[in-house]
Structures are given as C-alpha cells and as structure tokens.
Amino acid sequence: MPKHHIFATSFAKVYPYYVQKAERKNRTKDEVDQIIYWLTGYDQAGLQHQIEQENDFETFFAQAPVIHPNSSLIKGVVCGVRVEEVEDPLMQKIRYLDKLIDELAKGKAMEKILR
Questions:
Q1: What are the structural domains of the chain?
Q2: Under 8 Å CB-to-CB from 22, ≥6 apart: which residues?
Q3: Is 70 exposed, middle or buried (0-12, 13-18, 19+ CB in 10 A)?
Q4: Residues with Cβ < 8 Å from 113, sequence gap 6 or more?
Q5: Is the pLDDT of residue 91 over 80?
Q6: What pTM was estimated for this model as a whole?
Q7: Do residues 104 and 113 touch, judged by C-beta distance below 8 A?
Q8: 68 near 11, Cβ under 8 Å?
C-alpha cells in the first residue's frame, strides 16, 4: 500500500495553518507551540529547526524527542476519523496533533488539552 501523501508534506507548510486556525478563534501561536512541545517533546529551538529544514511529517515525528505518554488519551473525531482507531502509527500522531489544534480552536482550556 502506498504511503499517504501527508507523510511527505512539509511540516513547515502546514504549521502556519495550525497557527491561523488558532488565531481565528482568538488563541495564540504560543499555545499552538505549547501543544506541539507537549505532544512531541520538541522545545522552541527544535521546533524552529524542523520548520527551517522544511522536514516532512514523517521526519518531523521520527526526529521528535519523545511522544508524550498520555497521547493515547487523545480521543475523538477529526476530519471524520476517530483518532484512537487509526491503525498507522504515523497517521495517528498526525491526527493527534490535528485533534489537539481543533480542541484549542474550539476554546478548550489548555489544562484539558494537555492531558
């Protein structure tokens, strides 16, 4: 089965859309970054490096310092897909990130988003 095209998509190209989605709902870039730090273990320098290198999602998650152990607690539907039922580990991580950004844009408190 061929890889999904999102795996080869540059994280740097998608990142501004995460920020825009949050800002449209009066949330901040810092909150988006905080979610990414929590999920992936990146710090500010590591995230900036990933953006500058224009790494794809596959590399972005492969190089992540640590996926948060509570990420498996992320449940719900994003883009019509139940994240806890996604079988491909990389796709599931991408959906986790999408779900967290959705929760932020929907006004959920950071304490609830960062389980």
A1: 5-110 (1.10.8.290)
A2: 28, 29, 31, 32, 101, 104, 105
A3: exposed
A4: 35, 100, 103, 104
A5: yes
A6: 0.92
A7: yes
A8: no
- Do residues 101 and 18 make contact, with C-beta atoms less than 8 angstroms apart? yes
Identify the helix (H) or strand (E) that includes residue 81. strand 81-82
pLDDT per residue as tens digits for the range 28-58: 999 999 999 999 999 999 999 999 999 999 9
Q: Can you spell out the DSSP letters for 15-79?
A: HHHHHHHHHHTT--HHHHHHHHHHHH---HHHHHHHHHHT-BHHHHHHT-S---GGGGG--SEET
In the numeric block, which tokens belong to residue 86? 């996604």
Q: Is the dihedral of CA 66, 72, 74, 76 positive or negative?
A: positive
Token look-up 């920020």 returns 19
| C-alpha closest to that of 33 among 57, 11, 15 | 15
